[in-house]
Give the backbone structure.
Amino acid sequence: MGQQRFDPQLNLVALDAILEGRRAYSVSLRMVLDTGASYTVISWSAAEALGYHPANSPNRIESMTGSGREAAPLLIVKAIEVVGVRLEQVPVLCHDLPQGSLVDGLLGLSFLKQCRLAVDFPMGVLELDRLR
């Protein structure tokens, strides 16, 4: 089980994540915990840094964004590690967050459904454990 502190005064829970892609490429991203997002979301530039080519992805998922309905490329990243919990073959959507966002991506249900999650808002502590 991993644990991370966060600032309970903020309107988001930001976590550090390490993503692994093709040919041992990896990136560190600051991601916001988003239990309302069906998929984990990373930017196009992060996907490209991982060795993927989002524009060539044959799989697209239509989703509602602030600017309307959009079809975003669906990729399977080699691994994502958050708070010491590492999951492999995680589906992610490739979509850029609005400019000025405080984070690099969203940690959504495509990652979280494989975990046990506890968030203690008054104490500012998040605990994450991989389901067996």
